[in-house]
Design brief:
77% of the residues lie in helices and 0% in strands.
């Protein structure tokens, strides 16, 4: 729940920032000189890109949460069996061991979105966020019946 609140607050702050930046772009355009119009248009591109990125990221998080809820309803969510350091961080060797199991599971069932979901969790636990995201994107695509690129 804390992560959802943090995400919502961050998204809201970004939207406010995009509105402020966009208003500055409009003010530059309203000045009317060729240079300020060019700068104003350039400034308006930044919030547009930011809003697109925020929208795509929100869709990704929403879809990943839907898969997690579905997997939880099936009783297939991965159990947190990882050892932790005294400070609470995941032990690297423990994460690597679970990752090897999840990778083998995914290799045995490459078209099963559930195995890709669990692999994404294992990548995340091993602190490999880019691969965790790609694995989750693959799980979402498989769940939705969309073609996936050969990784």
């Amino acid at each position: 729940m804390r992560a959802k609140i943090t995400y919502a607050v961050t998204a809201a702050v970004l939207v406010v920032y995009f509105v402020l930046v966009g208003s500055r772009g409009v003010l530059l355009i309203e000045t009317g000189t060729p240079v300020t119009i060019a700068f104003g248009v350039a400034v308006l591109v930044l919030p547009a890109i930011g809003l697109w990125f925020l929208w795509k990221n929100t869709q990704f998080v929403r879809r990943a949460n839907q898969l997690a809820a579905e997997l939880d309803a099936e009783g297939g969510l991965p159990v947190d069996e990882l050892k932790r350091t005294p400070s609470g961080r995941i032990d690297r060797d423990s994460a690597d061991e679970v990752f090897a199991q999840r990778k083998a599971e995914t290799e045995d069932a490459p078209d099963d979105w559930r195995s890709w979901f669990r692999l994404a969790v294992a990548y995340h636990d091993a602190r490999d966020t880019p691969r965790a995201r790609k694995a989750m994107q693959r799980a979402i695509a498989l769940h939705d019946g969309r073609p996936t690129p050969t990784a």
